[in-house]
Amino acid sequence: MAKKKTTTKKKATKNPTAKTKKNLSLSRQQKVIIGSFLFFLGIALFFAFISFFFNWKIDQSEIAQFSKRSAIAKNWLSKFGASVSHFFIFRGFGVAALFIPVLTSLTGVYLFFDLNKKRLAGFWFWGTLVMLWISIVLGFIKQEGGLLAGVIGYEINDFLRDYVGFIGTVLILTFFAIIYVVVRLRYTPEKIAASIQQAQQTVATNATDQTSQSTTKNGKHTTVESPVVTTIAKDPINAKITNIEEDTTTTLESTKDLSTTNVLNDLYTKDSERTSTDDSMQKLVIKSNDDPEDLEMEVESVVEEELSENLSDKLVKDFGEFDPTLELGNYQYPSISLLKDYTGQTGGITIDQGELEENKNRIVETLKNYKIEIAQIKATVGPTVTLYEIVPEAGVRISKIKNLEDDIALSLAALGIRIIAPIPGKGTIGIEVPNKKSTIVSMRSAISSSKFQNAEMELPLSLGKTISNETFVVDLAKMPHLLMAGATGQGKSVGLNAILTSLLYKKHPAEVKFVLVDPKKVELTLFNKIERHYLAKLPDTEEAIITDNTKVINTLNSLCIEMDARYDLLKLAMVRNIKEYNVKFRARKLNPENGHKFLPYIVLVVDEFADLIMTAGKEVETPIARLAQLARAIGIHLIIATQRPSVNVITGMIKANFPARIAFRVTSKIDSRTILDTGGADQLIGRGDMLYTQGNDLIRIQCAFVDTPEVERITDFIGSQKAYPDAYMLPEYSGEESGTGLDIDVSERDKLFNEAAEVIVTAQQGSASLLQRKLKLGYNRAGRIIDQLEAAGIVGPFEGSKARQVLVTDLVSLKQLLDGE
Ligand SMILES: Nc1ncnc2c1ncn2[C@@H]1O[C@H](COP(=O)(O)OP(=O)(O)OP(=O)(O)O)[C@@H](O)[C@H]1O
Predict the structure, then answer these.
(1) Which of 2, 37, 386, 797 is most exposed, with minimal Cβ within 10 Å?
(2) Are 788 and 777 in contact (CB under 8 A)?
(3) What is the whole-number distance in angstroms between the Cα of residue 688 and the centre of ligand 1?
(4) Is the ipTM of this complex over 0.85?
(5) Is the minimum distance from the CB of 490 to ligand 1 under 6 angstroms?
(6) Is the pLDDT higher at 49 or at 190?
(7) Crossing angle of the two packed helices 222-234 and 236-255, in degrees rounded to 10
């Protein structure tokens, strides 16, 4: 189907040329008239030329008088014949000029019958060459010049003789003769040899045929012969062939008298008859192709299919895949040595056997008090807590143990006991008891772990270590957004730093950009140093890190615009997500001239979301919710941290869009429920002890610890390297107030105002990004035009991140509206 389409297209594109060709070519009537004229002209010339050979001497002496009517010419075609012949024969090619009338007549015939023009051109080309060659050869033979060679033949021969001598001239002429034979007549030495051989064979076969024929005729071996004859007769072609064979043999018969009498010979004859049949078939075929020139064949012009895919392949072949990191090609990732090694300080995880034994005994005893017998107990020592896995005796209800959580905690006299009943996938009951001496999980160990180093993730985060001392690595791109909550001083800021550090260690500045919102003004300031490497900001803003809550609204809306623009790009590229888009872009399958560019991931980090909600309220909630709902596919990921996990901060809408959550220690079970939908966070021990969920299981993790000096060293290291000229620019967002109440003068309107209005009305979508795309405008200009359209009453007022309403329904109404102004 697709192929068909291409052919039609090709035909369509071919048409203009075909049209001009048609205009130039002659109509059928014209062809018949001109064809007849040329045919007769050729005959006239032929007679004129022939008679010229007899009368040329007389006519030549009179030639100067031919302009006079009274002058008489002997030529059969009188003065015209004499003059033309003189010109072509005497002054031209001599005897060889006879080719001219032949070719002229032939042209007439071709035109008359509308035959193949290409072949005619071939006749003219080779005819002229042969005429010239004959003329030179004759000039070579008869060197005194004159009628035989004509002036041209004589002069060229003379010229050749002067420069290459006798032998040279002979060689040149022979060489041209060979060219003619090989190219025009298509003879090669092998072909000639083969045809001689074939001729010999035919004679030999014919002789044998005659033998066979004569024996058959003698009627001696009819029984052997008959089946072959019948098979042959069945086939009309073969029957025909037999006839021909018979004819040949009859003639041969009269000349030769060959007879074989034994059966062996007869059989041989039979075989040779078959061969001869094959041969004559061959002969027949050859006969029909005897003069291949007679058979007309129209060669369809070859239409090359367009191979658009190949362009990208070629680009990749020539320049390699697009490398977004090339602009900062010498960028060095921070080294692991910038991070502090805490093992010396805490001595790593130590297993205190006494403590383990003591805890085990207490657990067993406490459970015994409640009449719960234990069949088996196993301990796993983690960095901050030890997990005691117990297998109760048969018949013990799990809910009973779960209900005794507080009692067990009391009798173990330990804060932060958490009971997991049962441990998912294990069928055991877990009791987590904090270690007396906790171990710091250093960021260094989290980063250098092979799990993180070899992580094939888009945005890998090394969060810390699980209870079984495994480094916990997750992909932010898969989360796709993260909610972090915990009471003050429990490790939230450290957690955020760990996340950012993970990304800095794994991602090139071209691949990820951060939008940092820090109302506390002090937590994220260190990242200012890497503004031109990793941060994104609004145009015309001083600081990349947003500390002013009113500016957050603009940034969030700007991110929404970026999101819409990215979705448009994805749609254009016909891909479903940023990963596929970037793969296609790297493979040079997306043309930057169409607005395509490599899209870095954008990570929005909001430290203190509660503060933001308090000051900005609904205005931030809408864009945050929109981003959370839609931004995952286009690479915008949100990390929101809050101290106050109350329901008016972590609303249902936020929770619904943030399946991945981290809870640090909180003060109440209610807070834990707000964050995790279950208790547990209230029993954490703080200092980076956290629970992570991505929708189902809760995982207890000791957050990796990264101190401010470490972050400072990393940002210093990155900041000291060559950077981009500016931070990553987010689309400009003009804010609500700038759009309303506009009174823009008609004369001040943009030149593309009318065009833009048409685009908006046709698409029934009042968005600046649409104008940007359709009219290839910058964001600012598109925004201004939208304002002008609003002032003109074509689009409605600003509606947050949604596209504006289009107030004019069709182009006719638009025209009326604009004309009425
Ligand atoms: N993962 C950790 N390992 C060890 N200690 C930690 C860890 N995280 C935090 N701490 C300790 O807890 C202290 C407070 O942490 P952090 O500043 O992150 O708390 P916070 O929740 O951000 O508090 P706030 O909300 O008041 O800013 C740190 O100074 C540090 O001593």
Answers:
(1) 2
(2) no
(3) 6
(4) yes
(5) yes
(6) 49
(7) 130
